[in-house]
Amino acid sequence: MVDELVHYDVVGGTATITLDSPHNRNALSAQLRRELSESLDKARTDDAVRVVLLTHTGPVFCAGMDLKEARGAGAGAQGVNEFPKILDQLWTSPKPIVARLAGPARAGGIGMVAACDIAVAVPEATFAFSEVRIGVIPAVISLTVLPRLNPRAAHELFLTGDVFDAKRAVEIGLLNAAVPAAELDEAVAGYLKSLTLGGPKALAATKTLLSKPRPATPSEGFAAMNELSSGFFASEEGQEGILAFAQKRKPNWVPED
């Protein structure tokens, strides 16, 4: 029996999805892709899950596509064909996803980091869009990465394939924070706790809102946004939040400590 490469665990409203294939630097092999996709589906449909943590074992978060599997395969048989589904699962998850990086990410690994809502890494973590260095292009991951990155930095880093550090990753919008290794878990836990304070439906709708194209002017969007906002104020979740605020208690969706 083949050992699993992705672990799924739920504690206190947080689903932890752990990449555990350190022998190949958590590369996106066929098995890892399949198990990661299955885990993301579980988190999406599990009512006990409020937020998702994407993390890893070993010194590398994810090295990108498994190049051993890619060697000699035709275009239709390339593993990258399955990767858009995973990026879409991360990007469209109604439950916020936090990426925890205790080590480097490359290529497709960066695509996953960008698809998460919040990303935290240690200062020693490095990054590179290494595709051009092996004669391929960062096409699929561009759809999650480019909305995050400063355009000038995107041109530089996509075209050169140069390695950059976590400090630069924060500056250009790829990461939310870079913290010392001893503080990584505490920083991640802080984000996870904050996210569980939001109403589940409100969080899902806010994620959708963040991904929508902006109207040309605010006045063009006010009618639709007012309808959306008033609907949430009147909703069961909204009324529970308002009542909890008045009664100085936690809303019923906040997990017990």
TrEMBL record:
Q: Which Pfam families match?
A: ECH_1
Membrane-traversing stretches: none
Q: Which CDD domains match?
A: crotonase-like (cd06558)
Indicate the family of this protein: Belongs to the enoyl-CoA hydratase/isomerase family.
The identity of this protein, by name, is Enoyl-CoA hydratase-related protein
Instruction: Provide the species name.
Output: Amycolatopsis rhabdoformis
